[in-house]
Amino acid sequence: MNQPAIPSEVKLYFPFSALRTGQDIAINQIYNALKLEKHIVISAPNGFGKTITVLSSVLPVVMENKDELKVIYLCRTHVQGQHVIRELDRIIKHLKTQGYEIHLGALSLRGRISMCFHPDVLQYAQDPLNAQLLCRELRNLDRCPYDLHIQENSKQLTHLLYQLANHAIDASDLIEICRNWEFCPYQVSKLALQHMNIVVGSYVWLFEPFIRDFFLENIGTSLNNVILILDEAHNVPEVATEIASNQLTYYSVEQMIREAEKFDASSIIDFGTNLLTTMDDLKEKISDELGISPHLTFKKVFQGYQTPDFIKEIIKLGELWRNKRLKEGKNPRSFLHSVGMFWMNWALKQNFKSYFFCASKYYTRAGEVSIKFEIVSLDPRDILNPILQNIYSSISISGTLEPIHYYSDIVGLPENTIELSLPTPFPKENLLVLTMKGLSTKGNSRTKEMYEKYVERCVEAVEAIPKNVGIFTASYDVLEGLLKHGIIKKIKRKKVFCEQRNTSSVENDRMIAEFKLRSQNEGAVLLGVCGGRNAEGEDFPGDLMNGVILCGIPFAKPSARIKALIDYYGGSQKGKDYAYNIPAFRRANQAAGRPIRTLTDKGIIILLDYRYNLPFYKKFLSPWLRARIVSLPDAPGRL
Question: What is the C-alpha to C-alpha distance for residues 235 and 407, in angstroms, rounded to an integer?
Fold first, then answer.
């Protein structure tokens, strides 16, 4: 049987003898898009081999233009970045076995805090800005031995940089190399960037405006010479709007007052006291979230003060506070500075329709109800347009980008963007998708009888599916409903692990490791939430998860900001789809795909909500799910 045709330039880099279904289409489209300096969006299901396909298509173009083009490969997590580096290493080794010597440098990055050995930074730096300030002060005072060691060992440094420029290196490996040499990993990574053909990192490196310019300067390039790869691109709109948004908590204002008291800044103390009174008044008026007029609120908050001069005064005092703390060797975090910057942002954005201003309640770590002001970005294009309109070319790829036109539109890609939806390579017999009538987590359906029915169906499925099973609910409220109605007690043979709202990443990782380990014996059950870290950021191939049960559709809770988002996108069905339906089904599609990661995996996906099989909603499911659905009547024993 003849192999599908792909460009000879790409064939050199592709490390496998055979292509999976659809890989030839993707390779040709990506290669041609790069040659034409176009953007391309690809929806490719699990098991497709997305990373190796993209890298093999991009590398010949980059190596042909080594002095001009750079690749920035952005992911959401460090684990995804490690996978990219492993695949690059696979390609380099493949080329060497073919007798080709390639000079290719690739480096994955982490933030300054994750790449620092100095105890002061590790103890006091709570965010990137504070880490930067502490790091700079320590180096200026010659109090960082790791930076001094770099300066004192230029020959060793030059040798290391040369070695890095010819390898694919993950940040974790660079950290260990630098630990042995007593070099600062972060500073070494900055020096190495100029020599790299491919840089792998999280979205924030390019999306965060105050980081972007420094990042590009360290790489030694400009946007028009960058091929941008956005992996797991379904995350991009949400990450962009999160970066453009801002909030001011009641606690931050209280801390600002305490800092102002150190300077006897009476006008700022009075301002903070009045601001707290305003927030207290609002707290009594709202049940959850309230849209507020940005102009009237700003006028009320700053009544009697000269703006923007007064805001600049708060920011300037915050800078003095940070410098004072730095000289004392303490955490330089300043609430004066952050409060001032919040109101500066408010003033700048209050005339833009792409922002929603609100007051909302939230729970503190102590479990108490408090209040905050929020500037909510409604449009990711505010962050993405400066990037995508100036980039050489971009590749957006994910398994859950359908409908593709929605993604292209919402991130602001041009009309000539290439859009490609690829078939699943999974054998039909490896996957069973069931939905069941008579169940729903719609608000008025969440009765005692409905929760009992959900528990009964989940227990039935858990007993029928071998080894590990995942149960992902539409929300934490639904999860708590299942717990309240005894799901843990009613699952007899398998240990149940339950995702918690405020669990640290370390504690969650420990729980997931134990859950996976149980697959070697009788198996276990993981209870989580669609859109949560375990429903999107974790893979469970093989027996690590043989089945997934989705309890309900993970629609966002109706709120003032959701209504604002619907109105922003036209208030019609398009607005409801963009703000409400598509994001919900993207979360469902992500959760449903957890057990299907490799071509040999077998799994069952049970969609426990009758709405999954309604034509209107069914169209939002990924094609590989939609084509396989079997609808069952609601009755005991059917699962």
Answer: 10
Could you tell me if 577 and 616 are in contact, meaning their C-beta atoms sit under 8 angstroms apart?
Answer: no
What 3-state DSSP class applies to 227?
A: strand
Provide the token pair at 334.
């300043």
Helices (H), 328-370: 335-349
107 token code pair: 């480096």
3-state secondary structure 291-310: ECCHHHHHHHHCCCCCCCHH
Identity of residue 563: K
253 beta partners: none
Give, as one character, the DSSP assignment of residue 118.
-
Crossing angle of helices 236-244 and 381-388, rounded to 10°: 110
Closest CA to 233 of 371, 446, 408, 22: 408
Q: Which residues pair with 469 in a beta bridge?
A: 525, 547
Q: Give the C-alpha separation, 30 to 429, whole Å.
A: 31
pLDDT score, position 241: 97
> What confidence category does residue 2 fall into, taking pLDDT thresholds of 50, 70 and 90?
low
Q: Show Cβ contacts of residue 20 under 8 Å, excluding neighbours closer than 6 positions.
A: 47, 48, 49, 425, 599
> CA 68 to CA 582: how far, in whole Å?
38
In angstroms and rounded to an integer, the radius of gyration of the C-alpha atoms of the chain is: 26
d(CA 623, CA 608): 18
The pLDDT of residue 433: 94
Name the β-bridge partners of 419.
Answer: 41
The 3-state DSSP class for residue 414 equals coil
Contact 361, 370 (CB under 8 A): yes
Residue 633 CB coordination number (10 Å): 8
CA dist 523 and 494 (Å) reads 6
The residue to which tokens 């963007």 are assigned: 417
Tokens representing residue 507 in the block: 């504690």
C-alpha distances in Å from residue 225, one per residue of 30, 389, 612: 17, 12, 44
Q: How far apart are CA 137 and CA 390, in angstroms?
A: 35
Task: Tell me: pLDDT of 157 over 90.
Answer: yes
Q: Which helix or strand (DSSP H or E) is residue 550 part of?
A: strand 547-551
* Burial class, 274, CB count within 10 angstroms (exposed 0-12 / middle 13-18 / buried 19+): middle
DSSP character for 196? -
Q: CA 340, 342, 348, 351: dihedral to nearest 10 degrees?
A: -130
> Are 440 and 610 spatial neighbours (Cβ–Cβ below 8 Å)?
yes
pLDDT at 1 exceeding the cut of 50: no
CA dist 385 and 413 (Å) reads 8
Both tokens assigned to 71: 């690749």
Whether 455 contacts 487, CB under 8 Å = yes
- The one-letter amino acid code at 533 reads R
Strand partners, 200: 73, 108
- In angstroms, the CA 319 to CA 565 distance is 36
